[in-house]
Amino acid sequence: PNPSYTGSVTGKAKRTGRKRSVWIVCLTVLLLGVFSFAGCVTRVETAEKLQDLEFTVLDKEDVPEAFKSRIQEAKSEPFQMSYADQGSLYIARGYGKQPTSGYSVTVTGLYETENSICISTDLLGPEKGEETKEAATYPYVVVRLDYVEKDIIFD
User: Fold this and answer.
1) H helix or E strand, kind and range, residue 84
2) Is residue 124 within 8 Å of 106, Cβ to Cβ?
3) Which residue(s) pair with 105 in the sheet?
4) Please, is 22 exposed, middle or buried when counting C-beta atoms within 10 Å of its C-beta (0-12, 13-18, 19+)?
5) H helices within the chain, ranges in order?
6) Which residue has the higher pLDDT, 155 or 142?
7) How far apart are CA 56 and CA 63, in angstroms?
8) Rounded to an integer, what distance in angstroms lies between the CA atom of residue 12 and that of residue 10?
9) Is the pLDDT score of 2 beyond 90?
10) Cα separation of 121 and 103, whole Å?
C-alpha cells in the first residue's frame, strides 16, 4: 500500500471526527440553553390584583406581645413575617440595622390576588438636612388587617 495514501485517509478521518465533536458540543450547548430559558419562562406567574385591602399601620406599642418578641429577635437583619391572632392578620417588614436615626418604612401597596396577599414597602432614609443621631436603628413596619387565609408575598 501507498504510505501517503494511508496518511491522507487517516488525516481526513481525524478532521471529520473533530468536526463531528465540535458540532455535538455546539448542539448540546444550544439545546441546554433552549431548555434553560424554557424552564425560566414556565415559572413566571402573573397574579392579577383582585382588590386593595384595608389595613392599619400599627404603633410599636399596639403590636401583640408574642409578635413583638419575634420582631425583636429578628430586627438586626432584614425580615419578613406574619402573625395571626383573633381574626386579625399582622404583617411585618424590617430592613435590619441602619447606621443612624431618621429611617422609616412606608407601605406603598397591600392588595389581594386569587392566591395571595401582596405587600410592597419602601425604606426611606433621613431627609436632606434632617438632624440624625449616630446610633444604630432598626426600622420596620407592622400592619394589621382582617384575617385572610392566603400566602403573603413581600415585594
Assistant:
1) strand 78-85
2) yes
3) 123
4) exposed
5) 3-42, 65-74
6) 142
7) 11
8) 5
9) no
10) 13
Which residue's C-alpha cell is 465540535?
A: 22
C-alpha cell at 108: 406603598
> 16 pLDDT band (50/70/90 cuts)?
low
Q: Quote the cell numbers at residue 153.
A: 408575598
The amino acid present at 126, given as its one-letter code, is P
C-alpha cell at 98: 441602619
* pTM, full prediction: 0.69
Dump pLDDT digits (tens) for 63-98: 999 999 999 999 999 999 999 999 999 999 999 999
Concatenate the DSSP letters of all residues of 19-64 into one string.
HHHHHHHHHHHHHHHHHHHHHHHHT-------EE---EEPPGGGS-
Spatial CA neighbour of 85 closest among 60, 55, 65: 65
Confidence check: pLDDT of 123 > 70: yes
Strand 56-57, strand 116-124: pairing: unpaired
Cell of 80: 419578613
**C-alpha to C-alpha distance for 18 and 16, rounded to whole angstroms:** 5
Mean pLDDT in residue range 89-112: 97
The x, y and z cell numbers of residue 46, run together, are 402573573
